[in-house]
Design goal:
single chain, alpha/beta, 5-stranded parallel β-sheet, 4-stranded antiparallel β-sheet, globular, RNA-binding
RNA sequence: GCCCCGGUAGCUCAGCUGGAUAGAGUGAUCCCCUCCUAAGGGAUAGGUCGCAGGUUCAAAUCCUGCCCGGGGCACCA
């Protein structure tokens, strides 16, 4: 409808230009059509006259009136009026919205699927937290956000590939394996002082225990052997201390046994993450291992390509990427002085790999602490000879956890965090998911556990779900009264929906596809959440103001038609956000 | 010091590709179940849109400066 109105307005402007009432450059002006805020202004409004007023040096109201008289009649538009200071308002026929309702009923779950994305392939990273411990509530926001965004993009017509990037190759993972081994020795009765840089969470002990149960004393070494010649674990040496312990572990266990411990640690954590996400309604089509990049040779190939483009240079025995060429504040190390590649080297390989898989868009979802990455990743795409616009790095602000007024620490290594699983169990999947989603990603999220728990019944998600359950209840009542909904008669009787609540609700329903597009353009699933809340509000108001199961058949069937369309849109929206759609509450 | 995000009703936030009287939820006060689930609806109260300039016919929305809060500035991942 918007584009139709734009089209007609453009024609009108054209005509005024041709007849000399407006200067020729008026044709260039962008034609904006907005949904009217207040029903008394009609359904749509345009400010075009006010925009033209300046360049044409004419009274905006006069221009508006000229435009209106130049407009052809537009089908489904019953009123075109001019309001001060120069708005052109359009009133749309109810019949137009009735036809939209029929579309909803006919299309069912497909209503809201639009072609904005034109089938382009999108790769979206889901969480990608290091498998060094269970997901905590900070990851929860990334998970909920990226999963819902993926759904929104899919609905908007993109072909979406959801992928979890598993960092299984770095030093942190070796620290993890070493931590498990030390706990194992502890269980075997060795008094081992636990390193300050080790992973202290209790899940490490759990993994160590299963290791002991399955392998007995196969990995046993005396504490004296382990700590021989290891630097002290004080502030000045703690990094050296943990590195030395890793080395001792690899040496004393030999490679294959170390790998056994390593794999056991990683896989049990990864299994936990998989299960956690799946229970949270977060699906990944692929789990991509960082170590795979070594096998495919993507890292080497990426580095080669950067070398060819002269984007790499050597300094202080390390290899640097010229990211300053692309606006980064400093160049970045790719290969360390000691010959070890940095994490950024993996990034090079991974992004190259994704590009070679033929994706049109790469969506990286990171926590706000990664904001320094944007410049170097954009630079990377350019240096690889690709379009940096393909890459969209989306930063999600932190969820700061509070218990009452005290901030809860979330250090994975320190082990004192609230896990996503704990949160889900405390407030429920739907409440947790909606709480994460309802804020836009750039908004800091204060997550007060006490509040989330105590107010779980007041959570807006229930408000929306309740609207759906109420519709279901209406149809149950209908059946109990031995009545049936005559869909065809309802559709034929929609003109009987004359109340303001009904007109407003039918207009809200028609907005859903537009809402999906807005959410996709802005990469904000929160837009859908806000919409659903408004829709539920529109329904609840209607519900309280009118009885649906009335005696007059035509009216009843028409109202049920509207209500059924509402149910469908609520269902589609909730599903999109990964929320359950209860029929009874 | 530099960079990113935020600062709107007591609280949590929408609105921010500039537009017509700034909106929800929650908390406060009051009203509505002989009628489809009151996890609901309705009404009232509550706002110098952080501060100061600027651009504009029009600024919560754009620009500049400042103040406050969060985060980031590794040869860590």
């Amino acid at each position: 409808m918007k584009t139709t109105l734009q089209h007609y307005l453009r024609q009108a402007v054209q005509q005024l230009c041709d007849t000399g009432k407006l200067p020729a450059q008026a044709k260039e002006a962008p034609i904006q059509v907005e949904r009217a805020r207040d029903p008394k202004f009609g359904d749509y409004a345009s400010n075009i006259a006010m925009i033209l007023a300046k360049s044409c040096q004419q009274n905006p109201k006069l221009i508006a009136e000229e435009l209106v008289s130049a407009l052809d009649t537009i089908s489904n538009v019953h009123t075109v009026s001019v309001a001060a200071p120069g708005f052109i308002n359009f009133g749309v026929e109810d019949a137009f919205f009735h036809s939209k309702m029929a579309e909803i009923i006919a299309q069912k779950e497909a209503y809201g699927q639009i072609d904005y994305g034109r089938g382009e392939k999108v790769h979206i990273e889901i969480v990608s937290a290091n498998p060094t411990g269970p997901l905590h509530v900070g990851h929860g926001r990334l998970a909920a956000y990226s999963a819902s965004l993926a759904n929104v993009l899919a609905a908007a017509g993109f072909k979406v590939h959801r992928e979890y990037y598993v960092n299984d190759a770095g030093r942190q993972m070796r620290i993890l394996a070493t931590s498990v081994w030390l706990r194992y020795l502890e269980i075997m009765g060795e008094g081992v002082p636990f390193p300050g840089r080790g992973y202290k969470g209790s899940y490490i002990i759990d993994i160590a225990r299963t290791l002991q149960e399955d392998y007995g004393d196969q990995f046993f070494q005396s504490a004296a052997m382990v700590f021989a010649d290891v630097p002290p674990d004080d502030e000045a040496h703690e990094e050296a201390h943990i590195d030395a312990l890793i080395e001792r572990a690899e040496m004393l266990l030999d490679k294959s046994n170390f790998k056994l411990v390593f794999d056991r640690a990683m896989n049990s954590i990864l299994d936990d993450i998989r299960e956690d996400l799946s229970e949270f309604g977060v699906i990944c089509e692929e789990w991509f291992l960082e170590s795979k990049l070594l096998e495919t040779g993507d890292i080497d190939e990426g580095i080669e390509r950067l070398k060819k483009g002269d984007y790499l240079y050597e300094k202080d025995n390390a290899m640097w990427f010229r990211s300053t060429t692309f606006g980064d504040e400093k160049d970045r190390v790719v290969v360390r002085e000691n010959g070890q590649p940095t994490y950024f080297a993996s990034d090079i390989g991974y992004h190259l790999n994704k590009l070679e898989r033929g994706f049109d868009h790469l969506v990286d979802v990171y926590g706000a602490d990664h904001h320094g990455y944007i410049a170097r990743l954009n630079g990377l795409l350019q240096a690889l000879g690709d379009d940096p616009k393909k890459l969209n790095v989306l930063l999600v602000q932190f969820a700061i956890l509070y218990r009452g007024k005290t901030k809860v620490s979330m250090s994975t290594r320190g082990g004192e965090f609230v896990t996503l699983r704990e949160l889900r169990e405390e407030v429920g999947n739907d409440a947790a998911r909606f709480f994460y989603i309802m804020r836009k990603r750039e908004q800091h999220l204060d997550f007060d556990l006490e509040l989330a728990k105590s107010e779980s019944n007041d959570n807006p998600v229930y408000y929306i779900q309740y609207a759906h359950a109420r519709v279901c209840s209406i149809f149950r009542q209908l059946a109990q009264k031995n009545m049936a909904w005559d869909q065809a008669q309802g559709e034929a009787s929609l003109a009987l929906l004359i109340h303001p609540h009904e007109k407003a609700l039918s207009r809200q329903l028609a907005r859903f596809p537009e809402c999906i597009e807005m959410a996709a353009v802005a990469n904000e699933p929160a837009v859908v959440a806000t919409y659903l809340h408004e829709l539920a509000n529109g329904f609840h108001s209607y519900y309280n103001a009118h009885v649906f199961l009335v005696e007059e058949e035509e009216v009843r069937n028409a109202r049920l038609y509207l209500v059924e369309a509402t149910r469908q849109v609520l269902r589609n929206g909730l599903t999109l956000l990964g929320l359950s759609v209860p029929e009874v509450m």
